[in-house]
Amino acid sequence: MDIPYTVEVRRDTGLTNGKIGIWLFLASEVMLFGALFASYILIRVGAPSWPRGDTILDVPLATFNTIVLISSSVTMVMAWASLMRRRFGTFRIYMGATILLGLVFLVVKYFEYGHHLSLGEYPRTNNFLAIYYTMTGLHMLHVFGGMVVNAYFWGPGAKLWKTNPEWFTNRVEHSGLFWHFVDLVWIFLFPTLYLL
Amino acid sequence: MTSDHAAGSMTSDHAVDIDKHVRVYITVFVALMVLTIVTVAISYLDLAVPLAVTVAMFVAIIKGSLVACYFMHLISEKKVIYAVLALTIAFFVALLALPVLTTNNGFGFAG
Predict the structure, then answer these.
(1) For residue B2, which residues of chain A lie inside 8 Å, CB to CB?
(2) pLDDT digits (tens, 9 = 90+) for A28-78
């Protein structure tokens, strides 16, 4: 049995099931990160003193990563736009760039984590590092998850383009929504942890 | 795999529409880059913490809104999505308000 409303929109909502599904998922993600931001506020306000992020963390490196992630958001939306223009080859280039930029982000985080761990700065060291590792770690998992999905659509999942291009385009749009959300979370994480 | 396999009709109007979208994406990208530099530059001003938090969050909200409105197409989304997000924002604000309620003597709620 075919999955209903993958291409045609539902009459009651005016949307495909996939579009509603991804937005409901993102709503739950907002609450997940919201709980962590609330915890951060609670811990910081309750602390007798709190270090400025830039005294512990590497701001130039994080700024570079911010630029990388924003760039990946643009390549992601351009990948979707390429499918809308029926240019599959261009889609592959943009989607490949998105995956590579995600990889660059993770590699930079690897070196950043490695540097802190080599200095003996562990999550147990203090509350600042605990919340730093927790929030950036969860964010990194999201970047990795998004990369896996995007890699699937770049590779084996792209077979769908041959048989049902509209459905494939919708799927890429949904994975794009997740990727932009990951970028959006970083836009708030960056000043919160590194600059304030 | 080529674009020849793509089914569905794509009118020239549609193509023009997507071209407009692409121009907007590029503009938003430039704006996000500039705002990222602004965010970092502000941190070097050594503002008092409350002011620094306010300014940093203000810039972050502008950046986040640009991503949500244009990259995530929220600016032209269906009402159902807006309803879901409105509910989410309400709960999100309540979640962030909880620490405030417990730290500022509960605004009269604490015993």
Answers:
(1) 88-89
(2) 999 999 999 999 988 998 899 999 999 999 999 999 999 999 999 999 999
Q: Nearest-5° angle of CA A163, CA A166, CA A170?
A: 125
Q: Which residue of A has its CA nearest to B15?
A: A85
Would residue A47 count as lying in a domain? no
Chain B positions in Cβ-Cβ contact with residue A87 (cut-off 8 Å) = 3
| Domain assignment of residue A110, given as a range | 53-195
- Chain pair A-B, CB pairs under 8 angstroms: 145
Number of domains in chain A: 1
Is A35 within the bounds of a domain?
Answer: no
Separation in Å, CA of B54 to nearest CA in chain A: 10
Helices (H) and strands (E) in chain B, counts: 3, 0
Interacting residues of A158 by C-beta distance below 8 A, sequence separation 6+: A88, A92, A168, B1
Instruction: Read off the pLDDT of residues B21-32 as tens digits, 9 standing for 90 and up.
Output: 999 999 999 999
Question: Domain with A191 in it: what CATH number?
Answer: 1.20.120.80
Angle formed by the axes of helices A17-46 and A165-189, nearest 10°: 10
Structure tokens at A81: 């736009």
A31: contact with B, CB 8 A cutoff: yes
Determine what percent of chain A falls in helix, strand and coil, rounding each to the nearest 5.
80, 0, 20
- The answer to whether residue A7 sits within a structural domain is no
What are the residue ranges spanned by the domains of chain B? 13-76, 77-111
**What span, in angstroms and rounded, lies between the C-alpha atoms of A159 and A12?**
31
- Exposed e or buried b per residue across A165-191, where buried means at least 16 C-beta atoms within 10 angstroms of its C-beta: bbbbbbbbbbbbbbbbbbbbbbbbbbb
Residue A57 lies in a domain: yes
Query: Is the complex ipTM more than 0.90?
Result: yes
